[in-house]
Structure formats: C-alpha cells, structure tokens
Design brief:
Length: about 375
C-alpha cells in the first residue's frame, strides 16, 4: 500500500504534536509493510500513491487544496481530523485586538482572521490560502468533509464534535485512531539520567510549545511560592512571542526554560520529573501527557477536550482560567504517587503499534478492501 501524508506547510519549521503524530504513524505503518511518504505541497503528482492521508480540519487552508488535488487525481482521502476548538481560549484568555474581536465574532470568523494574520505576519500565503479565502473558514471545512472518504478522529469525543458541527459527515465511515506513545523510547526502566538533569529531579514539568492555548502563564503563576522547580520544555510559537516574554518577566527563580528538545531527549526529562502539567484550553488529549504518563509521572490536566477519555480518574484535573485550581491540582498530584495503573493503561492501550493498525484499517476501508 502506497500512502502520501499531506499536512501544513509549517509542519517542520513550527513543529507541534501533529508533527510527532505524523512521523510516528509513518514509522509504525512502515513496520506493517506500508510505503509512506510525507509532503507539505498543495498539489503534488499522486501517480505513485494509492491513497492520500490528510491532517487537521481546524486548519483548512492547506487541507482544502490538498483534498481537491487528491479528488482531481482520483485518489481516496482519509483525514485525521485533530478537531479541537479553541473558542473558549479565544474568548476568555486571548489578549489584544484578537481577543476583543473573538468575543464578538463567531468561531469561523475568528479562525478566518487568524489565517489572514498568519498569512501576513508569517508569510504563510500560498495558493491554498487563496482558495480558503474565497470559500471562508466554514465553507472550506464543509467542502473538505464532503471530499473525505474515511475520518480518523483521536477519540469518541472528537468524533462527536465533527458530527455535531458537520452533519455532512454523517453516514461516512469513522475509525477511532488514538494518540499514542512510543513504548520503546518512553521506557522508564531503560532510560538513563544524564548528570546535568539531576538538579531537576522531583520537578514539575511542562512539555509543550509555548503559546496562549497551552496556558503556561497561568502555570507559572500557580507555581509561585511552591517549593519545587518548574521546567518548561518547548519553544515559543511565532505569533506568541509577546506571551513568551510575559512569562519570562513573571517567572521566578524556580522556573527553568529548556527550549525545543529533540524527542529522543525527552524520556530522561520525564523520568526526573514527579508531575507533568498540561493545563491547555483544549487537548485531544496532548501527546506530552501520554508520554509523561508512560514514564510514570503524575498528571495534571484540564478536562477541556478528550483528556478524561484517555486518563479517566487517574489524572488531577483543574480549570484553565483559575490559578488557584491549577495550584491545588499540582499540590494534589505532587503529594500522592502516580498510580501505576495509569502507566499500564497508556502503554497497553495507547501505543503507536495499535495506532498504526487502526490507521491501516481505515485505509483498507477507504480502498474497499474490507
């Protein structure tokens, strides 16, 4: 089976959870015998491929052009929807003119303006952007949904959001493909701790790109006065540099910035940490939370998105807009040991082998092989 993964043009220049998802899914699909290539082009020649796998319905400016191209060339289309809405963050926590506009506009209008801003500020302007601007945000999403043959959400909750917002998806096949961890890489027993990480043993850790949606500012505020180090591993998103500078200004001496780390270096960092915190306004459910759980960390998360579907009652939950709630959840998680059943659940249920198997099932469904 020959598959082309297609994603946003900034997939590698501004890496995120979707970057890891794409690379690891490719790796484990190839172990099952599939031939997988990755492209950020809008209209590649698809003669060498049986099927196109697209990613991220939230950001349709590339996906629309890629889906249209696949349909023109007669290829089946699967879509990992990664459909988590940022509406609550936009209306409650986004600052500046963007926040003011979000509080008076619809979600689709807000996302449309974000795309315009990225096109101008980050030079993310291409033929796909033009197609998107002509259709509008919701129009682009609806057309993508109409072109997709099989949907691959990460959870039942995400499937429900897609069906609620896009009735045109009803009647089409859905295959739940969970987010996952590499259980060989994230293996606590096999991970050695470098001497330079020893000062952070027992720390509170947050592995995430630094941006408003990930909510590190409230995390820094919640950690003020607590006796443990906070380690932030991730680089600031291009459009959130002011947010990053505000975090730097408010960070106390117990906050340590590690920037973007190679994925292979993360297991040791998780191993020295006691608690991993990801207090995002939306996660489906957050790869770093899964990785941290696989390494034996206690978890602090919000219930925005699909976290409860993955972590059930094993995590400590908090409200993203409440510093007091975040602080209380950190204290609760720190004072009780991580439940070994969480580590076992993640390693058994949410590994890339199972993700690849479910993805291959979706491909066979799209190609009429089952």
């Amino acid at each position: 089976m020959r598959v082309l993964f297609q994603s946003r043009t900034t997939l590698f220049s501004v890496p995120g959870g979707d970057t890891v998802q794409i690379l690891k899914t490719k790796e484990f699909l190839e172990r099952l015998g599939a031939n997988v290539a990755i492209s950020t082009e809008l209209e590649p020649d698809l003669a060498d491929y049986d099927l196109v796998h697209l990613f991220n319905l939230i950001r349709p400016q590339e996906v629309l052009a890629q889906a249209r191209n696949a349909r023109r060339q007669g290829r089946k289309i699967t879509l990992s929807t990664i459909y988590g809405l940022y509406t609550e963050y936009d209306r409650k926590a986004r600052g500046g003119i963007g926040g003011l506009l979000s509080r008076s506009l619809s979600t689709g209008q807000t996302e449309y303006l974000k795309t315009l801003a990225r096109a101008g500020k980050n030079r993310e302007f291409h033929r796909g952007t033009l197609q998107y601007l002509r259709c509008g945000h919701l129009g682009a999403q609806r057309e993508i949904v109409s072109l997709v043959d099989v949907f691959l959400p990460n959870s039942e909750g995400e499937k429900g959001r897609v069906l609620t917002d896009f009735p045109g998806a009803a009647g089409k096949p859905f295959v739940i493909v969970p987010n996952a961890v590499d259980t060989h890489l994230f293996d606590s027993e096999a991970t050695e701790i470098a001497p330079e990480l020893e000062p952070y043993r027992g720390c509170v850790l947050c592995v995430a790109r630094i941006e408003g949606r990930k909510n590190q500012l409230n995390l820094v505020r919640a950690m003020q006065g607590l006796p443990w180090s906070l380690v932030l591993a991730g680089k600031p998103a291009p459009n959130h540099l002011d947010y990053y500078e505000q975090i730097r200004r408010e960070a106390g001496p117990n906050v340590h910035f590690h920037g973007q780390l190679d994925h292979a270096l993360l297991p040791a960092l998780y191993k020295v940490a006691r608690v991993h915190v990801l207090v995002s306004w939306m996660e489906t459910p957050g790869l770093s939370s899964l990785e941290a759980a696989a390494m034996g960390c206690a978890l602090v998360v919000t219930d925005r998105g699909d976290t409860r579907e993955y972590f059930e009652d094993y995590a400590s939950y908090c409200e993203p807009d409440s510093v007091e709630s975040i602080r209380a959840a950190i204290l609760k998680a720190y004072e009780r040991p991580a439940d070994p059943r969480l580590r076992q659940r993640v390693r058994q249920e949410f590994n890339w082998q199972k993700t690849a198997e479910k993805t291959l099932e979706a491909y066979r469904l799209a190609l009429g092989m089952i």
